[in-house]
Amino acid sequence: MSRAHSLWLRLGLVVLVIAGTAFAWKQYAHRQHDVADVPTATARQGEFAVMIHCRGALTARRSVQLAAPVGVQDLQIVWLAPSGSEIKEGEPVIRFDQSKLQQEVTEKRVALRQAQATLDQGEAQAHMRAEQDKVDVSSARYDMEKARLEASKKAIVSASDGQKSAIDLGLAQEKVTLQVSGTDLHAQSDAAKNASSRRLRDEAQAELARSLKRLTLMELKSPLNGVVTYLNNRSQGWMNAQPFKAGDHVASGAAIAEIPDLSTLEMESKVEETDRGRITEGDTVLVHVDAFPEKVFDAKLLIISPLTEQSFDEWPPVSTFRAFAEISPPDPRLRPNMNAAADIIQTKLPNAISIPARAIFTSQGQPVVYVKSDRGYEKTKVTVRARNTDEVAVNGLRAGSVVALIDPELTKK
Residue ranges of the domains in the chain? Predict the structure, then answer.
């Protein structure tokens, strides 16, 4: 072999080595690029809570409605506490126009004074007449005794004078009888008149008391600590119903506002029929209020409705059970009708390996995960122990393993 031929052979070998190295580096860089582009998650080991997820809203177990006073016509609202504001027991919530009732109270007071004056006048006249009747009866009896004394002299006077004395005695006795009868008649008449005046006075007094009572009802106060919520005013029809506001006219006895007791707030959830048999009263519930996504509220399942209820919010209608969970301790930030989600804990698996539900794929009908390694992603078969909405507990995987959240083979293709 010549020296030139040997030189070319060595040069070719160097070129082949350089090309192989470049190809290997390109493949490695491409594989690392594919690995870097795949989103991942780390398998963790710890307690895994098997939960049933459901949606609902907060509701108050105890609430009190405030209604317009009964028996008062033409009520008009002149002031309302701000809607949604916190209210303490005994604080005013609603005030009505009092001008007409105040005028009515003034008129009733005048009527009562007039009735009392009439009664006082009648009683005074009856007393004066009774005293005069006593004087007249006493005078008649004195005349009768005087006539009796004269009649007793019949034996020592003439016959004509004795007969006259007897006649005078009879007339005096009749006068006494008439005077006593007149006294009784006057007493009965005055008693009847005074009784009528007293009845009119009592009626006027009762009317004034009723007006004063209605006047106190012109301000509705809160019977408990809570939050003010105003009901819809449907006096203009269902289509135009709006919450009550200042200036609205209210019918007698109509419900205007509702004050829920914030200490009795509960999570009302809709439980699917397939999940009903997996939960029981007393289960722990984790409440996630949409308005406070950073906070998880602890609750306890209290009541599950025995029958299903149909909801027509979607089609076809869905039948669900209603479950109520008590939030403890109460949080002053929570309000009724806030949308929330509830995770009812069915059971807990200690020392379980869990990964996101997105990391589970199916290969030939078997669940698999793609575990990250230096050579890329390796397909690994696993066994699903329990499944939640966003998380899965599995066997066949080590804690700390990094798994792909999308199929790396599809990404490569």
Answer: 40-59+262-412, 64-96+218-260, 100-216
Max CA-CA distance within the chain?
Answer: 212
Which residues lie closer than 8 Å to 57 by C-beta, 6 or more apart? Answer: 268, 336, 337, 338, 339, 340
Closest CA to 287 of 272, 265, 304, 309: 265
DSSP code of 282? T
CATH architecture of the region 40-59+262-412: Beta Barrel (2.40)
Q: Which two tokens stand for residue 397?
A: 């995987």
**How far is it, in rounded angstroms, from Cα 226 to Cα 87?**
5
Q: Does the structure show a pLDDT above 80 at 377?
A: yes
CATH 2.40.50.100 fits 64-96+218-260, yes or no: yes
DSSP string, 34-68: HHHHS-EEE-EEEEEEEEEEEEEEEEES-EEEEEP
Q: What is the pLDDT of residues 1-23, one digit of tens each?
A: 455 666 666 666 666 766 666 55
User: Could you report the per-residue pLDDT of 189-242, keeping only the tens digit for each?
Assistant: 888 998 999 999 999 999 999 889 888 889 999 998 888 989 998 877 777 788
* 230 closest CA partner among 87, 91, 84: 84
The residue behind tokens 């403890």 is 328
Q: CB of 200 within 8 A of CB of 118? A: yes
Classify residue 17 by burial, with Cβ atoms within 10 Å: 0-12, 13-18, 19+. exposed
Distance separating the N- and C-terminal Cα atoms of the chain: 49
Report the C-alpha gap between 305 and 171 in whole angstroms: 97
The rounded distance, in Å, linking the Cα atoms of 345 and 322 is 16
* DSSP H stretches of helix in 235-354: none
DSSP element (H, E) containing 167: helix 159-216
Q: What is the rounded CA–CA span in Å between residue 88 and residue 345?
A: 36
Paired sense of beta strands 297-304 and 265-272, if any: unpaired
Distance CA 287, CA 57 (A): 10
Task: Specify the DSSP class assigned to residue 69.
Answer: P
